[in-house]
Amino acid sequence: MIQTYNVYCDESCHLENDDEKAMVLGAVWCPVSKRLSIANRLREIKKKHGLAADFETKWTKVGMSKIAFYMDLIDYFFDDDDLHFRGLVIPDKSTLDHTSFEQSHDEWYYKMYFVMLKTIFDPGSQYRVFIDIKDTLGHEKIRKLHDVLCNNAYDYSRKTIAHIQRINSHEAEQLQLADLLIGALSYLHRNLEGSKAKLLLIERIRERSGYQLTRNTLLREPKFNLMIWAANGGWK
Fold this sequence. Notes:
By secondary structure, the protein is an alpha/beta fold. It has a single domain (4-228), classed as Nucleotidyltransferase, domain 5. 36% of the residues lie in helices and 19% in strands. It contains six helices and six strands. The chain has helices at residues 35-48, 67-79, 105-117, 139-152, 173-189, 196-209; strands at 4-12, 23-31, 84-90, 126-132, 161-167, 224-228. Strands 5-4-1-2-3-6 form a six-stranded mixed beta sheet, with helices on both faces. Helix 4 (139-152) links the parallel strand 4 and strand 5. The relative contact order is 0.21.
């Protein structure tokens, strides 16, 4: 029987001219059969810390007043074998040269999404991809992204990448978890240091993952998979 997975994607500082140096794409994924139990467990952690079940977890909300809550979320991610993360970091967008490669920023963006997702996809399984709604990623771009992903994966019948759709982050606990992990990578790679709570969370991710978060993991690292992209098309 084919295993089906939900893949929850988010991004940080992805715009071409947003005056932010580093860009991060990332995804949390889990078996469809486990999605409800995982979502319920994440809500239980919120209730444990006195938060409403519909409290929206976001990196921008991280502060010392809720540090124990966010630490518990990170620990839960690493403790649950059904949850996985893959991140792609572009350290410096200013080095991009779209003209030389005869591409637009949007076309490059689609390529980066494929690079981020391709290691997740197993031809023997099926995937449903959910992307946080962004003003810059409308219906037409989602359809184009689906086309690019399927073509690059030789999935012309769309048996592997079944569909892609936009959702609001408050609709999926796993998408909120992706926001948290991506936010940590973005904060680190933008060399920010103003929040003690955020630095503590980054350190917890380092401890639990066993990685410094500044270099590639092994390509098939199953739990916390990280790729650092270089403008020349290589990897760090």
